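Page 37, top half.
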Amino acid sequence: MGDLGKIIIGAITGGVIGSFLTLIANSVQARGAYRRELMRWAIETAHKDFAADNELYNTSQSENLHPWPMSSYIHYHYKFINLLDRGNVNEQTLKELLNLQKKLLETYTEYDLPQHFKRGYYKPDFK
């Protein structure tokens, strides 16, 4: 094989390797962008949910009603959107999500987080 053949084989091999690595890089980048988009949806939905609960709190005369911290809303909505994304929404996964959320909210209550909430938290009846 002459020098020209080696150059052609090298160019083809380099092109194939470069294309393969570009494909992998684009795939990783697209996955990261998709995860960021899911998080953005979760934050937007959580913000609307929090605003609705906060409005209820502001118009309520109850001393035992206050929205949970925003992070708990984001946590719930992000987990729920991931279930929807995987097509895995059923009775079992929803119960698992509610149990996970219940543990998170119990932790907020147990450690009185955050400290600036003075009127207490709404305590949902998890079944």
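Page 37, bottom half:
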Amino acid sequence: MKKIIITLNIFIFLSCSQQDESITSEEITYEYSPQASLDLYVQGHRFIDQGKYKEAQKTYEKLTIIDPEFSKAWEGLADSSLLQSNLPQAMSYIEKALEINPSIASHYSKKALILYYLDEYDPSERFANYALDIDKNDVRAIIVSAAVKAHKGLLDQSNELFEIAINLEPEDSSIYYWKAKSYRVEIAKNPRNQSMIDKANEILEDVRN
């Protein structure tokens, strides 16, 4: 059982002839069980799935107060910040997660994703590889690595990685989206590859539907 002490400062303003202001402080003790922490973590994920990113952020913030050494809570904060397009804040949170626990693959793949959105492709690929060194089936790391290779014009290597990701998570529509998006950008540089551009657009349309 984990006990957290939170002190609430309650300001009481008294109107009197001298216009004095009195300030009192009340100490309240809350007890949080491991189950309470787990419930907050699950709730944060549920908000993410529902697209309620601000609510998810508030939930993960509560969790980091309850258990500041729970690195997955900081990763959750990074995720909710990323989904609100706050890349600097997302980077700060994921670095905190890595500082607490550098042995979790998802921390590295999340940082790889953030770096990708920051157009820092080489560091992004490096952190994706760190994740895969820990867990070769980290789908997010595979997707980011594939996207980076597509950006570099290494389409055969990129396609191989995307296929690995699809075989691991065939129901994850985001993989098809990433593949189509990466290929549409890179293949469009060569007008002779119109058939592949059409295929990329077809995949994107399927994902939207």
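Margin note: Residues 1-30 have pLDDT under 50 and may be disordered.
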